[in-house]
């Protein structure tokens, strides 16, 4: 399904039945990436999975990208769908987008799980962002990227350009403690302790600043520690948290 939001043709899919559950993919990912974690939509939830602007089948005619813009697009989609409040999962760039949404419109997010999403870009992340090019990805990854992004190699090259530009951006991803303190959603922060982009200390900073937050550090895990062999445990943990099991236990 496609809806025009902020002059972007925003592609999204919905699957399952029940409470709305917003899924926000990582930078250079796409909405259907949820299938790498959940074999089917979690029981009791209607999954809402957009392609962020310039990703997947969504367009980006402005040629610009920020996570703040992406959050505004998602907010527009929720308004279009008549969803006043949702639970949400955001992965990496999707988690950053979710942080923007949860701070800009706190009442929209009831509870959320943010995975490998930093409050700011540290030096090691910026160094890798500056090097973003096709040479960083193997043939298998590039083939997968071409399947994800429906507008061809020009779209992929645009995403590479955006990634390099993020290395010199200091206002889009800059969640200070007073800003994070405005979040009202119950929040589960998930980090790998061996993330090459974002040191695990950033997870502790987030947990200290977000009022109703919990922290899960996945041992011996890197960036996005929710795929592959970690997927079943993450699926069980995330859905348990979103159901409110952790809150009741506390």
Explain what this protein looks like in three dimensions.
The chain is an alpha/beta fold and 250 residues long. The protein has a single domain (2-121, 171-249), classed as Alpha/Beta hydrolase fold, catalytic domain (Rossmann fold), CATH 3.40.50. The protein is 36% helix and 20% strand. Strands 1-2-4-3-5-6-7-8 form an eight-stranded mixed β-sheet, with helices on both faces. Helix 3 (123-130) runs antiparallel to helix 5. The longest helix has 15 residues, at 67-81.
Q: Which helices and strands, and how do they pair?
A:
Layout: E1 2-5, E2 8-16, E3 19-24, E4 45-50, H1 67-81, E5 86-91, H2 93-104, E6 109-115, H3 123-130, H4 139-148, H5 153-166, H6 177-180, E7 186-192, H7 201-209, E8 213-218, H8 231-243, H9 245-249
Major pleated sheet: 8 strands, mixed
CATH fold call:
Rossmann fold
What is the alpha-carbon Rg in Å?
A: 17 Å
Kindly name the structural category: alpha/beta
Q: Enumerate the spans where pLDDT stays under 50 for 5 or more consecutive residues.
A: none
